[in-house]
Amino acid sequence: MTTPPSRPAPPGLRHIACATGGAVLATTLLWTVAHILGIELRVGPGGGWPTRAVSLPHVLGITLVVSLLASATRKGLDLLTDTDRASTIWTRLAVAVLLVSLTPLTYLQVSGGATAILALMHLAVAAVLIPLLAPEPPIDRGHDSKPTPG
C-alpha cells in the first residue's frame, strides 16, 4: 500500500510568531552592532534634503509591519490557491520585494558602514521570513519503491 506524499502545511500562528520574532531580533541585533561600532544610521534622499536618524523604535516598527504584511500575504495566497503553489508564489514575491527594497541603498547619501548595516538588515529579514513562511515540500523518499538489499 502506498501512501501519498504529504503536503507541507501552510504556516500557522507558531510559524508566523517565530518568523516575526526572528526578523525583529535579527534587525535589533544589527542595529545594536551598528550602535556599538559607532556607525551612524541616517537616511535621506540626498540633494541637500535633511537626513533622519534610524532609531531602534523605527527599526522595530518597520520590521514588525513588514513581517505582518508578509504573513498576511502568505495567508491570503493560501486561501486563493493550494499550499504548494502559494509557497512558490510567495517565495518569488518575497525575493522580488527584497530586491526592490535594496534599490534605494544604491543612491542613499550615507557612509559605507551604514549602507552595509542597512543592507544586512534587509537581507536578515528576508533570511528569516522566507524559509519560515514558505516551507519546502517534503522530499519523496520513494516509499512505494522496493527496498535496496543491504
From TrEMBL:
* TM ranges: 12-34, 54-72, 93-110, 116-134
Keywords, comma-separated and alphabetical? Membrane, Transmembrane, Transmembrane helix
Superkingdom of this entry's organism? Bacteria
Question: Known InterPro entries for this protein?
Answer: DUF6069 (IPR045713)
**What is the designated name of this protein?**
Uncharacterized protein
Organism this protein belongs to: Streptomyces lucensis JCM 4490
